[in-house]
Amino acid sequence: MRSMLFTVALLAVTLLSGCAGYTWGTSVPKEYRKVSVPVFENMTAVSEIGPIVTQYTLREFQREGSFRIVRPENAAIEVQGVLRSMRREGVAYDRGEGMRASEYRYVVVADVTFVDKKNGKVLLERKGIKGETTFLTNDDLLTGQRNASFRIADDIARQIVNDALALSFPGDGKGTGAVEGVQK
């Protein structure tokens, strides 16, 4: 009985010692966890997409949990976004309706810049974040596109927050703002 108890204790110590260096949490320094996201500038023909992408980006920052949304004057990082372009192209056609498109691919391209508010330096300038989805028209193109805008916004927001988590911060030893695979 005693040797069995000793074996179980030894096994537990061995298993737990492998996790001794692991910590739960974020790699974002505490002084950079306050973020603000002004409404994205919208250069597309879809008027409502700017506020939708901004709302979804704020929601994604909250969901992820490493950052806290604050007013611009209290932020350590400001996420500046420009929705640069939008395109919609037919991918499926209804032969019975004179070859009218019944399904579209919808793409919105955003440029996003992460600015260190303390010293005004650009931490990352990411061009060409592409959010895309498809949607059915069901004989109402605008409603289909409006509904798809929420999926586009969610796609762009996830990419933005992933980039924020991968940022290099001054003094962290990882360099100055380079994120692998991202244009600088």
What does this protein structure show overall?
The chain has 184 residues and is of the alpha/beta class. The protein has three helices and six strands. Strands 1, 2, 3, 4, 5 and 6 form a six-stranded mixed beta sheet that branches. Helix 2 crosses helix 3. The relative contact order is 0.16. The C terminus is likely disordered.
The helix-and-strand class reads alpha/beta
Q: β content, as a range?
A: 25-35%
> Helix and strand string, N-terminal first?
HEEHEEEEH
Q: How many helices? A: 3
Radius of gyration: 23 Å
Shape: flat
Tally the beta strands.
6
Bin the helical content. 25-40%
Oligomer: single chain
In short:
By secondary structure, the protein is an alpha/beta fold. It has helices at 2-17, 49-64, 141-165, and strands spanning 34-36, 41-42, 68-69, 77-94, 100-116, 122-136. Helices cover 31% and strands 31% of the residues.
